[in-house]
Amino acid sequence: MTIVITAFERSPDGGKGLARDTRVRWTLEEAGLPYEVRLLSFEAMKAPAHLGAHPFGQIPTYEEGDLVLFETGAIVFHIAEHHAGLFPDEANARARAIAWMFAALNTVEPPILELVTAKLLEADKPWREERLPLVEERIRNRLRQLSVRLAGADWLDGAFSAGDLMMVSVLLRLKTSGMLDEFPNLAAYVARGEARPAYQRAFAAQWAINADKPSGG
Amino acid sequence: MTIVITAFERSPDGGKGLARDTRVRWTLEEAGLPYEVRLLSFEAMKAPAHLGAHPFGQIPTYEEGDLVLFETGAIVFHIAEHHAGLFPDEANARARAIAWMFAALNTVEPPILELVTAKLLEADKPWREERLPLVEERIRNRLRQLSVRLAGADWLDGAFSAGDLMMVSVLLRLKTSGMLDEFPNLAAYVARGEARPAYQRAFAAQWAINADKPSGG
Hints:
homodimer, alpha+beta, Glutaredoxin, four-stranded mixed beta sheet, 9% strand
């Protein structure tokens, strides 16, 4: 069955790979699955046709036969559940890989989203300069704990899994901030993720769409 | 096998049921599973013994024989996967229930966590009064979209699922803000969740621990 995902016609990040379709592309590449992409304008994302698939009017969505899914974590999970290479076979190890997926999205990403919001939506506010360090410190607390847990390992729990894919994807949002470099093992962890051929193909595919266009948002 | 979860010895919310162990207790009650609780002080949460189970030093954790899990979403998922009543049987409907779990945690909860942070950690900052309405508007945008999707249905996608359990749990954080009342169908949705006997038992169990103690945080 053909897999179709949606992505930004013009990504707000201009091709840096931070739009969430990159996470799904990466997962599909790790699983060795071909896919098609339907590009959406900002208007199309908020139109009834797309809201039927994605109640929050975002990308990516995922279509495979009768199945229509939204929410990146759920799409990555669905692919990982049905194809080899993204979850360990052993039941407890699989449960722990799923734990890292949720940890990436609900424990590590929220303070990072706060930073994105502070820089994008509150850039012109008088509190910007004084508040940013507070947000950064909340992120740093999480990075410190994650760095201790990772220690000298290549991946968070044994072999590379969908948990690492999600954690690396979340940490990539910090790349331009310089904060990752305060934790050399985390910087190396993210670089290991980026070096995977599947990530390289995913990045190149979104770059090909976005690199020659002016930023959309 | 005995299931053991961890919870606050003294919950920062004084028993309002907003600590994340309530989400796990509710899931266990829906599944009809008995469980034991190990209470942790704030010091114990940051001690090496607990950090071995939970790298971010939080509650809840979940122990079942050899399996040690952290991260509420992953614990709820694990229980839902292995016991009846929390995921639909049909494969596509199950995938969509999982999508609602992730949507609750990664799309709806982050702006709500921002509000919690703004009220708790930035309460004394000069920007508090001017900034709170901005954060609330970001929450309201999500509530508006969720309200449109829910429309007149009892639950988000057919029968009650772990997706509803997580979404109701996330929305409960807004109960004292009054924002839910702006969306009567969401307020009724949350009330339906709270009215479930399994939720009532979960709430009562955490209340019994916290109600007679001074707030711990």
